[in-house]
Predict the structure.
Amino acid sequence: MKKVAVVILNYNGRKFLEEFLPNVIENTSSVADIIVADNKSTDDSVDFMKKNFPNIKLILNDYNGGFATGYNIALRQIEADYYVLLNSDIEVTPNWITPIIDLMESDMSIAACQPKILSYHDKTKFEYAGAAGGFIDKYGYPFCRGRLFQDLETDESQYNDTKEVFWATGACMFIRASLYHRYGGLDDDFFAHMEEIDLCWRLKNLGYKIMYCPDSTIYHIGGGTLPKSSARKTYLNFRNNLSLLIKNLPEGKVFGIIFYRFFLDWIAAVKFLFDGSFADFFAVTRAHLSFLKHIPALKKKRSQYTHNKVSQVYQKNIVFKYFLEKKRLYSELDERDFS
């Protein structure tokens, strides 16, 4: 057993396995175990794996529980010191694992870390899901160094510094296996989207650090399971964003920020309506109703966690900065507003 396990969760992604798995094997097998966990695919992914990659361990989940449950089920069956949660639509590069493991080995307070993530289709630009490390504003809106909303920056080595961040992307997250299991892993109820932010926030509340390591680079297609225009994705993002807030905000902040977020969410919903995106409008409505229905369960989860004022939170409203002040680059934000 190697101390690092790279775990690829697959759902109907035969085309990605065929295209990217050989690259992962070439650049990974000498330093890490590689496991594919299948989330009850309905395509021929499993037969393809058995025929073409018989030496790669294959875990067959009994049902599709989404990103969160799929990984939770699989990782309970894998022994390692470090897990790497890796999307199937990613091209890795030589020596992509060692720099991050070395960084994490140098500081036991680092719980999770991510590499630099660039776009597979335009390798000069950062990729939406993670870019150069994730942050969150005081109202719970996530963004990245290298990506504010849909604006992707060109990589000009401006983010080649090792840096503490707020969250590491689930597209390629390195995490200590012991902490993953000790603190409950990903939240099954999230299904998909923002579950990695929730996990990172829980770890930060316990005093651990989340890091970005620029000495490792990968290239991500993105949107492999749900396209960016999916109303299902809109629903999950709005619902899960509210859920992670009620679970993790410091004491005394929950009611005010949730109330404010409801107001801003409805502004977004009305914009969807005027733009003709009726499915997205109803997705926001359903997200709010689901959140309200599950408040008792979310409060019960909250009672199980520690809540502290944590670092790397942007103390302004990133929505206003972006849409009203026209800030399009992370570098245009004042570092003094992060605390």
